Amino acid sequence: MSEVKYDEIGYWSEVKLDIVKKYAVAYSTVLAAQPNIKSHIYIDAFAGPGTHISKATGDFVAGSPRNALLVHPPFKEYHFIDLEGWKANLLRELKGDRADVFVYEEDCNEVLLKKVFPRVRYMDYRRALCLLDPYKINLNWEVIKTAGQEKSIEIFPNFMVMDANMNVLKHDQSKVLESQAQRMTTFWGDESWRDAAYEKSAGLFDEMQSKSTNSALVEAFRKRLKEQAGFAFVPEPIPMRNTRGAVVYYLYFASPNETGAKIVKDIFDKYRNTGMH
Predict the structure, then answer these.
(1) Which residues of 162-184 are buried (b: 16+ CB within 10 A; e: fewer)?
(2) Non-local CB neighbours of 149 within 8 Å, separated by 6+ positions
(3) Which of 53, 156, 220, 259 is the 20 to 30 A CA-CA neighbour of 86?
(4) Between the CA of residue 159 and those of 9, 55, 155, what are the distances in Å?
(5) What is the pTM of this model?
(6) CATH of the domain spanning 8-160+215-272, picked from 3.40.50.150, 3.50.50.60, 3.30.750.24, 3.40.190.290
C-alpha cells in the first residue's frame, strides 16, 4: 500500500476534537450510570482515518474515532463511517477484532437512516451521540431531522458556511449553478435558505435583494434545528476558523436534553473567545 498522507489540521480543528472528546466523556459517564438505559453508542458519520497531523507541531493528533475509543466509561458500540476506501481501511485497522466497533465504507446519509439510527430507538432505552462533521455541505437534512425526531440522539453537526458562501450564496444569484443551489437545499431541507440568506428591500423600480450576514444565516439554521428537526436544546454554535481567522464552519450541538446542552454551552464558551491561532 502506498504511503498514507494524513490530513494536516490547524488550531481550530484541534479545538473541535477537544470539544467532542470532552463532551463524549461527560455523556458516557452520565449514560453509563443510568440503569434503565440498555446501551449508548458513539457515531462518527465522516470519521476520517482516525489520525491527523498538527500543522503547528507536525505531530500526530488523534482523530475523533480514536478519541472515542479511549473514552471511559466506554460506549457500548462505535459506528465509524467514511466513503473513502483508504480511510475506511485505517478505521478497520483501528477496529482490530473488536466486536463493538462497526466500520462502514458507505454514504453516511444512507447508512445512518437505514442501519445505525434504528439501533437507538427511544422506546428501546437506547441512546446515541453522533458527530456530523463533513468537509462541505454534503449532509442531508433528512439525517438531522430523523435524529431530532428520534429524541434519543444528540448531534454535533457543522454548517460549512465557507463552502456555502463560495459556491451558493453569491451576491448575484444568477451566477450560481443549479447543482450548487440544490446541494444547499438538500442540506437545509427546503428552499427557505434563500429567505435566510438574502434580505429584500424596496428599490426605485422594483424589489431588491441583498446578501444577509453570516450571523443571520447561522441563527436561522439554529432556529431550524429547534423548530423543524425538533431538538429542544440548541446552544449558540461556535465558529471554527482557518489560519487567517476566516470562519470555515460553525459547530452546532443539538439535543433533546437540557443537561447535555448546558455542558456543551460551557465547553463552547471556554473556547469561543480564545485568540486567533
Answers:
(1) bbbbebbbeeeeeeeeeebbebb
(2) 229, 230
(3) 156
(4) 18, 23, 13
(5) 0.92
(6) 3.40.50.150
